[in-house]
Amino acid sequence: MIDITIPKLGLTMESAKVVRWLLRSGDEVTEGAPVLVIETDKVTYEVPAPASGFLHPIAPEGKTCSVEETVGYIAKDQEEYERIAKQYPSPEGEGAETLAGEEPATVSPLSSPSGDRFKASPLARAMAAEHDLDLSSINGTGPGGRIVRADILAALEEKAKVAAKRIEELAEPGPGSRKDIHESIPIRGVRKIIFDNMFRSLSQSAQLTLHTEASAEALVALRDRLTRDGQKVSFNAILVKTAAMALRLHPKINASVGGDAIQVWKQIHIGLAMEANEALIVPVVRTPDRKTIRDIDREIADLVKKLRENRLSPDDLMNGTFTITNLGFADVDFFTPIIRPPESAILGTGRIVKKPVVKKDTLVLEARLALSLTFDHRIIDGAPAARFLKTIKDMIEDPVLMIG
Predict the structure, then answer these.
(1) Is 311 in the same domain as 352?
(2) pTM over cut 0.70
(3) What are 244's strand-pairing partners?
């Protein structure tokens, strides 16, 4: 048999939560096919099957397991699967039934008040007694019509709905004044991380945003010159390179607060905000000040691919020193980006749009780019932040300045 273990996805990772088994005990799997979804404090990851065979999970959904901890097995054949299933019971945290929905071997026949006899698992019987449920009113969906844990949970959910409806009827508002919930979305997983980080960002820093606008004519021309074989370099790659070179000239922007000291970082690592499944993810491009624009573009493309395939590791997301967020795709110009803790600044870029501008007393149409810099005023004063933003503006308008 082959162990399924919690993989180490990053240098700092110590544990992960079992979110969901994608297959049931006894299902046949192919090597490399995803069998399990786990969640760290940074990413959600699909664990592939280490071999082909028959799956047998042993860790229940919701359990937090250590790195390299065994959470299931792959049996090479049915005979080995049956032996493993007997030796290692399926997850039953709190006495729940197996993942496959099968019942424990011991199933107790019960009597209803009318004298009829029916079957229910020990867990179902205990749950019914705890919640004062009449088992005779519950339809069993287990083998042979047995009442299982899922049936009890469904009955409890229905009971809660009836109670909620009754309360609603007793407190029925007047016509036109109702406020009904369309959807209730739990704050957990990646959304919980964003929830906490954004609150921490705004509550533990003094954020101020500066806005300016740059001519994007040279930026567009540079992108066209870097195009090879019809493959265009992304504007994001050029902007990452621009920000990195500007940070070289203004190193105190590349800083964080650590205790009672301002930590100015040697390395420049720029995060690029991306959207995935209605969540904000910020993969990090490492040392872009030492790379070509094409190298940066390939690295961004690889991060986007990993994001789409749910393969980002914690190492892809950690130790950023500055962040760029681009809302140009949504036709946004200026906005107020929020700093990503523990960084001290973030650059927001808008769309590139043709606008009428005056050049040498002549009105002309020109491609323009909106820029918004949010910085932590506790450690960066307004004048240095404005000079940094102007450096970015100047480099966008004349990319040759990046060479110096």
Answers:
(1) yes
(2) no
(3) none
